[in-house]
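The records we work with from here on pair a chain with its fold. Here is one such record, which you should read through line by line:
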Amino acid sequence: MIDTIKNYTKSKAQSYEIFYSENDALNIELNNDETNFVSQGKTAGFGVRVFKDGKMGFSYTNNLSKYREAIDRAVKIAKLNKKDPDFKNFALKKNFTKTNNSDKELESFDAEKFSFFKKEFLGQLKSVNPKIRLSLATYIKNVSNSCIINSEGVDAAEKITANIYEYSIGIKDEGQIQSISLEEGSKKVLHPEIGKEAGERLQQFLNRKKMGSGKFQLLLHPEALSDLLSEAFSFSINAENVQQKKSVYTDSLNKQVMNKAITIIDDARKKNFFSTRSFDHEGTPSQTNKIIENGVLKNFIHSVYTANKQGAKTTGNAYRAINSLPMIMTNNILMEPGKTKDILGEVEDGLFVKSLLGVHTMGRGTGEFSLGVLEGHKVEKGEIKYPVKDVMISGNVFSLLSEVIAISKKCEEGYYGGGFSLPTTLYPKINIVGQKS
């Protein structure tokens, strides 16, 4: 079928790109410990871009029998659009090394197998406290076969498996419901042991205390750090935002923007990470991009379009669905470890934050934030004293990254909306708004 689509597109435009995708998805929803919705099915479709007479046209369809209509529509849209002098070409053909991004066990994972996972997960959860309830959950498994073909000679195909489990758990404590929402993602079948870890995190909520307002040291767990990076940092290294002057890094290439102890890499080739792939959704081979090196901004992340516009090399950061144009997004974000073996011991009087509330409200373009602390612990003289409640922190992400005073020797790998490997980081005094008991 893909050859038929290609041949017809080729007859309509000399410059074209086809993004074809087949997906086999399993979707399960749970409520109050019980499964209440199961859906599984296969879909297929493609998006097509044509460039004709200096103009771009885009269309898509998930009805393959109507491929001619979709391609004709893209040509018509191109005729109606304005000329784009910044478009040079689609992704050029380059050799790439395939990474193994599919897992046979996950491919065969179905609703029946999920029921066993759920039973084990609930058992692990309630082993911590039988009163804990799984209030809401969504499980999504997807097996994706994608193919990118363009007029520059790109012809790349890949299978990727992935599953994501988003869930909220709660427990009644002194007449009030304490709850936490968590998210796990992997290219392999998730292990039910995550239930015990989640239960232990929630259990800590039962003994939370209030703390006073003031300026305290801030110790960020990799999960909290990833939330801040995925908003402000990812936005600011996006070449499209840089070119539109929306980024704080617009004029900062090859300049010191962080503490010299920080090196950050965008890596789509890191083995077994969630965002690892052989090529991006334009057909550019995946690569390892050093974004920050010893505090210096070395690169932005690009699509083919922004790279050509800036005269830079494309970095393989294009993502898309069949119904969307390519968007620039980070792959796996890796920060190199520091030298501090016992980073908790470096905290004299501070707050250790594991997860935050309302991260989406922060200023992506400025880095300014004022956020609630979902999981945090008061730390005094290197010891965790108690979990806190009713606490907010405020500051600026970019200022924090410039002022970091310690970075842990150990990094934690995981999925927090994407693949990450990050250390625990310590910062000097930050504004904390609390309330004394």
